[in-house]
Amino acid sequence: MANLRAAKKELRRVMKQNLSRISDQSIQKQSLAAQEALLALPEYQAAQRIGIFLSMPKGEVSTIAIVVDALRQGKEVYVPYTYRFASPMSGIPASVMDMVSLHSQEDLDGLQADSWGIPTPSPSSIAHRKRCLSEDPLDSQDLRIPKASGEGLDMIVMPGMAFDGRLGRLGHGKGYYDFFLTRYKQQLAGSEGGEARMPFLLGLALKQQFLPEGQRVPTDDSDWCLDALIAGGESVHRHS
User: Fold this and answer.
1) With contact defined as beta carbons under 8 Å apart, do 148 and 137 qualify?
2) Cβ neighbours, 10 Å, residue 7
3) pTM for this one?
4) Rounded Cα distance, 66 and 48, in Å
């Protein structure tokens, strides 16, 4: 376990250095190509409800145009919202993520940036948004979080720091997406009726975030792999 943590930490360090050298023009060009590739995916076109990350100002593919397209098409769009538990327990992160609904492009335009520069729903708005998870493993400090909408997501578009050809993903180290997906799967297992399934998991990467052939992202059983990956808009990787 210690070796795995060290390997992840070292890869994040290397990727952070690499990403700091990418020009804004390159990120813009790759973002446009990645957006075009994503909008052409049959899974996106068929999806009615999608979860998608809102990008940082630098170092990753911009997702704003994708969110705007989804809203214009009448899809339900959900974005990450992080919050802390009042009484953390062993094995439960103190800070966790859910995905909550966006109402419109005006709603999107009104989001304020968090400490990472990511547009984020305000705590005061959460009571008026749908959410994906129906309950928390512990009482949250934010008691205004409502119950889930009861409808699952069809697709989740995920960020990361590094990706590989086997669709492994290295996040930023907080475990938000992996823990969210584990809770989401548990919720599906406990649901009654229907044939609930996990969302299609799609990664978006700059080409500099895609590891060379033969290199792998260090992972263990708690790390979720993707169903597909768009790397710089140049290619769509899927399980063979």
Assistant:
1) no
2) 15
3) 0.91
4) 14
Strands 200-205 and 49-52: unpaired
* pLDDT at residue 40, rounded to an integer: 96
CA distance 52 to 66: 9
Q: What is residue 91's predicted lDDT score, i.e. its pLDDT?
A: 72
pLDDT of 143 above 60: no
Strands 49-52 and 76-84 turn out to be parallel
Q: How many Cα neighbours within 13 Å face the side chain of 233?
A: 18
Q: How far apart are CA 1 and CA 4, in angstroms?
A: 5
pLDDT score of 144: 43
SS (H, E, C) the chain: CHHHHHHHHHHHHHHHHHHHCCCHHHHHHHHHHHHHHHHCCHHHHHCCEEEECCCCCCCCCCCHHHHHHHHHCCCEEEEEEEEEECCCCCCCCCEEEEEEEECCHHHHHCCEECCCCCEECCHHHHHHCCECCCCCCCCECCCCCCCCCCCCCCEEEECCCEECCCCCEECCCCCHHHHHHHHHHHHHHCCCCCCCCCCEEEEEECHHHECCCCCCCCCCCCCCCCCEEEECCCEEEECC
